[in-house]
Amino acid sequence: MVVSISVSARSLAAARLIDPDVSTAAVQAAVEAAVAADRRENTARGAEPVRREHNARREPGRGGTAA
Questions:
Q1: Distance between CA 58 and CA 66 in Å, rounded?
Q2: In the chain, is it the N or the C terminus that has fewer CB atoms within a 10 Å radius of its CB?
Q3: Over the stretch 29-63, which tens digit does the pLDDT of each residue have?
Q4: Residue 58 — φ and ψ, nearest 5°?
Q5: Which of 6-10, 14-18, 48-52 has the lowest mean pLDDT?
């Protein structure tokens, strides 16, 4: 299974609040590692795979629809 991850400017800005020198590649690698760990945990529990999608434009209370 292929996972495609892109780091939004908003996510990078949030990461830079913690570490002003963090690179986009470092944030992307951290997200990929978290996704892989989550997938391993779910596989170990026997959970069904879940397709998740994040769209930063959909925010409750800001004109988007609640997912």
A1: 7
A2: N
A3: 888 888 888 888 888 887 666 666 655 554 455 55
A4: -95, 100
A5: 48-52
What's CA 12's distance to the chain center, in Å? 11
The encoded tokens of residue 51 equal 């397709």
Domain boundaries, the chain: 9-45
Q: How far apart are CA 57 and CA 41, in angstroms?
A: 29
pTM for the whole thing? 0.55
> Could you identify the residue written with the tokens 């986009």?
24
DSSP for the chain reads --------HHHHHHHHHH-TT--HHHHHHHHHHHHHHHHHHHHHHTPPP------TT--TTTTS---
